[in-house]
Amino acid sequence: MNTLLIIINIAIFLLLLFLLFRMQKKHISFSKRVFTALGIGIVLGLAMHLVYGTDSTVTKGSLDWLNIVGSGYISFLKMIVMPLVFISIVSAFTKLKLTSNLGKISALVIGILIGTTAIAASIGIATALGFHLEGIQLEEGAAEITRNTQLQETVGDVKDMTIPQQIVSLFPQNPFMELTGARPTSTIAVVIFAAIIGIAYLGVRRKEPEHADFFAKMIETIYTVVMRVVTLILRLTPYGVLALMAKVTATSDYSAIVKLGKFVVASYVAIIIMFLIHLLLLVLVRKNPVTYVKKAMPVLVFAFTSRSSAGTLPLNIKTQHQEFGVSEGIANFAGSFGLSIGQNGCAGIYPAMLAIMVAPTAGINPFDPSFIFTLILIVAISSFGVAGVGGGATFAALIVLSALNLPIAIVGLLISVEPLIDMGRTALNVSGSMTAGVLTGKITGELDEEVYKQPKQNLRV
C-alpha cells in the first residue's frame, strides 16, 4: 500500500513539473514560473505533511524521489559557483572601465557589506532585548550538540581557533583545493586568489601588453562559456524551487516551531527591519525601492527556498546586471564578496541575537553598552569567511559566542527551527549583496539609470 501511495505522490509531482514545463514553452515570464513553483510546492508539501505525517514511510519515500530534482538542482548550482566566482573576479580586472576604479569599488563593496552587517547586528540585539529573549535555558541545547556529530566537529574547530587564527584561515592555501570548496572559508579564499591573479594581470598589462591582451581574451571567452552554463542551470530554477519547497513544508517540525515561536517571530521581525534598511539606503541614493523589490523578488524567493547564498549567485549577478543596470564588474564583485563577507542575516542578526540570549547565563548584563559595542565589533569582524550555504549561520554563531566566551549550547537548542529561520536569513544575505552592488554602481557612476528605471524584464534564462 505504501509503495502505491509513493507512486501516486511521484505521479502528482511529475504532473506539476509538466505544468511548469508547459508554462516555459508558452514563454510565461521567469518570475511567474518561480512564484507558481513556490506556491504549488508549499501546497504539495503541506498536503503530504497533513495526510502522511513527517516521519512516515510514504513521506520519506516520496521525498527521496523528489530530492532527485531538488538536491540535484542545488548540486548543479554548487558545481558552477566556484568557477563562476573565480572567473567573475578575474574578468572584473580585465575590464578597463572597472580597473580604473578598482580600489574604490572593492573598498565600497566590502565597506557596505561590513557596515550593513554591523547595522544588522544592532537590529538583532534590539530585537532580542525587545522580545525579552535573554536568559534562555541551555540544557536541551547541550544535549543536541552531544547528539549531533557534525556540529560537534564544527564546535571543536571553532573553539580551538582565536580570532587572528580565524582571519588567517581566510587566506588561500592550495588554490586547487579551495576550488573544490574543501573548507568553510574556501569561497573567500578563491576570491582572494582570483584577486591576486587580477593584480598580476594589471602588472603584465603595463609591461607586456601583448600577453595581457591574449590573457584578457582568454578570460573573456571562458567567462562567456561559464555564463552560458549558468543560463542553462537557471532554466531549471522553477523545478528546483517546487521540489525544495515541498520538502521544507513536508518535513518541518511544527511542534518545535510553536515551542520556539517567540524566537522565530523575533528573528523574522529583525530580518524584515533590516530589509527595510536596505530599501532606505536605496532611497538615500535616489533609487526607487518599489522597483528594487519587484525586480529582486525572484532572486529573493529562490534564496528563501534554497537556503543557499552560493546557489543564488548566478541569479544574483544576472539580476544586478540585467535588471538594475549594475556594470558586470561590480555585479561580479558584489555577488562574489557577498557569499562570504558581511552576510546580514547569517553573520549579522543571528549571532547577535544568540549572544544577547545567553549573556545573562554567563553573568553578563545584556544591556551593558560596552558589551553591546564589543558584540557588534566582533560580529562585523567575524563576518568574513562565513560559508554561503545552509549552515553558515551556525558557523558564524559559534565564532561569535566562542570569541565572547559565551555558552555555545544554545546553537543546539535552535537546530530544530534552523531551516525555517535560515530561509529568511539567506534571502536577507542576498538582498544585502544586491544592495551593495546597486549602491556601489551609483556612487562610482557605473549604474545604468535607464535600465534601473525600466519596468521589470523577464530575465534572459
From TrEMBL:
Organism (species): Lederbergia citrisecunda
One Pfam family named in its UniProt record: SDF
Upper lineage: Bacteria, Bacillati, Bacillota, Bacilli, Bacillales
Domain of life: Bacteria
SUPFAM superfamilies documented for this protein: Proton glutamate symport protein
Localization per record: Membrane
Membrane topology type: Multi-pass membrane protein
GO molecular function: L-cystine transmembrane transporter activity; symporter activity
Protein's name according to its UniProt entry: L-cystine uptake protein TcyP
Residue ranges that the Swiss-Prot or TrEMBL entry lists as coiled coil: none
Statement: the UniProt record of this protein carries the keyword Cell division: no
Membrane listed as a keyword: yes
One Gene Ontology cellular component annotation held by this UniProt entry: plasma membrane
Family according to the record: Belongs to the dicarboxylate/amino acid:cation symporter (DAACS) (TC 2.A.23) family.
Transmembrane segments: 6-22, 34-52, 72-93, 105-131, 185-204, 225-245, 265-285, 371-389, 395-415
Keywords, ordered alphabetically: Amino-acid transport, Membrane, Transmembrane, Transmembrane helix, Transport
